[in-house]
Amino acid sequence: MSVRTKLSDTSVIALDTAAVAARARFDSGIAGEAGSKDALAQLESAVGELRAIRAKPHLQRALGAFNRDDFAGGEKWVLKALELDERNGLAWYLLAFARERAGDFASSLHCYESALSLLPDHAEVANDLGRLAFRLGMKEQAEKLFRHFLARYPDSLEAANNLACTIRDLARQDEAIEILRQAIATYPGSAILWNTLGSIVSEQGDFATARIFLEEALRLEPAFPKARHNLANACLSQGDLESALTHNDAALACPITGDERQMMRMLRSTILISLGRIAEGWEEYEARVHPDFEDVTLYQIDAPRWEPGDDVRGKRMLVVAEQGLGDEVLFANVLEDLVADLGSEELLTLAVEPRLTPLFQRSFPKAEVGAHATYKIPPRSVRVMPFLEDKPPPDVWSPMASLLRQYRTSIDAFPDRERFLTADPIRITHWRKVLEGAPKGRKVGLLWKSAIISSGRHRFFSPFEAWAPVLATPGVCFVNLQYGDCSVELEAARRDLGVEIWTPPGIDLKQDLDDVAALCCALDLVLGFSNASLNLGAACGAPTWLISVPGAWTRLGTADRYPWYPQARLFAPANFGAWDDVMAEIATALRTFLSPSKAD
C-alpha cells in the first residue's frame, strides 16, 4: 500500500503542501517525560535481569515508588543503591528521573551524563538526556543525542518529533519539515507529528497551511490540547479572534500540566486584549508571574505584593519593570497615575534595566530609581534589586505590568498625554545641531528589525527589500536608529537603491538608550517596527509612525490608533507578510508629510 493511500484526504493535501510551507513557535514541544510509565517498565525489566547484587532490592523499591509517582520517596532508595555501588548506571538513570521531576535540572543533567557513560548501549539514556538538554537550551547537544537514539531506534516517532523540534530551534526549518514529512509517511496517524509540523509552519507565517496541519492533528486526536492551543494561535494571527478564543478555551478545558495552563492563559490574555476585553485580558496576563509558568521570573522582595484596589496613599511602593526593554518603557505609561494615588513621587521606588536608569530618574526626579539584576538559577530566572540591599523594605511592591489591572482597564483609561518619559533637553539640542550636518532633507529615523530573531519572531518584521518604496521618497534624510549589526542592510540600500541611510556619529544605539531617546526627539519623524528604540522615542513624545502586524495585542483591539502613544500613527498590513501594500501606503503618507514645507 502506498503512503498516499494510507492518509486521509486532509493528510494528502497537508503533506503535499508541506514542501511549499518549508519555504514560507508555537507549542510543538519535545515529546516524552522523565520517568514515564514506558521508561519505568523497561527499567524494571533491566533491574530484574541484574545478577544478585546488593543494590538490586533498593532499585526495585525505587521503581515501585516511581510507579506510584512518588519520585521523592524513590530517590531515597536510589541514593541507598548508589552508596552500595556508585558505578551502577541504572541507579544514576533513576536518580536523573527523580532530579528532573523535582525541577533540579542541573543535577539531573549530571546524572543522565553519568548514566550514559556507564550504560553506553542503553540508547534510551541519550533520548532522555537530549530532551533535558533541549529544555535547558543546549540545542546542539540535544541534536547529537537525539540522532544517537535514532540510530538505535530509527522508527521512533518520539525521536523524530524531538529531533525536528531541535533542528527547528537551530533555524533549519526546511530540514525539520523534511524529517517530519518522512516520519508522517511512516506514521500518518500521529497527531504529535502533525502538531509539530503545524507549529513550525506557523512560525514561518503560513497560517493557512498551518491550520490544515493542526486540524488534521485534531481530527486524529480531538482532545489534544497543544494542537488546540496552536490552532488558536494561528487563528489569532489571521485575525479570527472569536475562533482563537474558542479553541484556546477548549485547550484549557483539557487535562494539562501547570506550565501548559499558564502558557495557554497567556495566549488567552492576548486574544481578550485584541478583542477589546482589556480588563479581562490583564487578569489573564498575570499568568506570566505564576510559579508554574515555564518562563516565569521570580522576584526576591521582602514585602507584600500590591493588588488592585489596595489603598496605597502614603505608602512606600516599589515597582519593578519587567519583560523586554520595549515593555519596560511601554508599561511605564501607568506610573503617573500611580504617583497620584501614592500622594507623593518621593514614595515611589523604580527598578529598571540598567541602561534605562538615567531616563527614568529624569522622568521621576523625586523617586528613587535603580537597576534591577536578573540571574538564571535553573530552571528559573530570579530578579533582585541590589541598590536596595541595605535599605528598609518597601511597604508594598508590584511588577510594573500588573498595575495595568487597575489603571488601564479600557481604551478610555489611556490618557491623551504628549509623553510620559522625559528625554534630556540638553542632548535634544545637541542632536538637533548634529543633524544640521547630516545630508539635506527632513530627518526621518528608521527602525526595521529586532535584535531577537528566535521563535519565528522574524515574521513580525518585513524583509529589508520591502522598504524600497519608502526609501525612494525624495526630500528625506533617513537616519539609522537600528541597533545591532545592520551593515548588510545599509550596504544594500546604498548599492541597490542609491540611498544613504545616515548613521549618527558618537552614539552606541544599543547601549546609550538615554541618548537614543534624545536623538528620536530631535528628529522630524521616527518610523519603523515596535522595538526598544521606537518605544523610547514614542514614550518621550517623538513624532512616531508605527508599523504593526495583524493580531498585535498592544493595539488593544483598535484598528487605526495606538493608545499607549497618542501621537503615533499606525500602519498595518491586512495579513501577515502583505508588506508591499503597507509600504506603498507609508511611502504615499511620507510624501504628504513632506508637502507642507520644502526640504532643507
Q: DSSP helix count? A: 27
Gyration radius (Cα, Å) is 27 Å
Share of residues in strands: 5-15%
User: Class of the largest domain, according to the CATH hierarchy?
Assistant: Mainly Alpha
SSE inventory with pairings:
Elements: H1 3-6, H2 9-21, H3 37-48, H4 56-67, H5 71-84, H6 89-101, H7 105-118, H8 123-135, H9 139-152, H10 157-169, H11 173-186, H12 191-203, H13 207-220, H14 225-237, H15 241-252, H16 258-274, H17 278-285, E1 297-299, E2 317-320, H18 325-331, H19 335-342, E3 348-352, H20 357-363, E4 368-371, E5 373-377, E6 380-384, E7 396-399, H21 404-407, H22 425-435, E8 442-447, H23 468-471, E9 476-480, H24 487-497, H25 513-522, E10 525-529, H26 532-539, E11 544-547, E12 569-571, H27 579-594
Parallel strand pairs: 1-6, 2-3, 2-7, 3-4, 8-9, 8-10, 10-11, 11-12
Antiparallel strand pairs: 5-6
